[in-house]
Amino acid sequence: MQFLIRPAEPSDVEGIFQVRTSVTENFLTVAQLSEMGITKASITEMILSSRCAWVAVDAEKVVGFSMIDLDEGSLFAAFVLPSYEGKGLGKKLVHAAEDALFQYHHVAWLETSKTTRAAGFYRHLGWRNETDIDGDDIRLEKSRP
Hints:
Blueprint: E1 4-7, H1 13-20, H2 30-35, H3 40-49, E2 53-58, E3 61-69, E4 74-80, H4 89-101, E5 107-113, H5 117-124, E6 128-134, E7 137-143
Antiparallel strand pairs: 1-2, 2-3, 3-4, 5-7, 6-7
């Protein structure tokens, strides 16, 4: 299968939310995301104001995405539809995000729950310097190659 990884466009926001609300780990509803300030309007504005998101596309369908906060130097999100897991899309999406982060930062960071598959995934991709944040959450860092 060939997948296209490309910068996200405002027209991808609906697909991004479809992916985000379809995951089995770290699941959040649209209402829960909205309570956190993550809305279709806020994501559209982020995409319009900076290169901050990438999508994996299969025949025009968004099947995964990654997002960064360039000012903070953080990987904000990386998700793939469950039916597309294990195809290397997550790795490609994270690498696209890292490439952008490392243009402006020597060290990038992310936060995740320490007991999730995501934590293992990020560790496998070279994210280190694990620090406990609170409860089950950790901060991981990765240095520019």
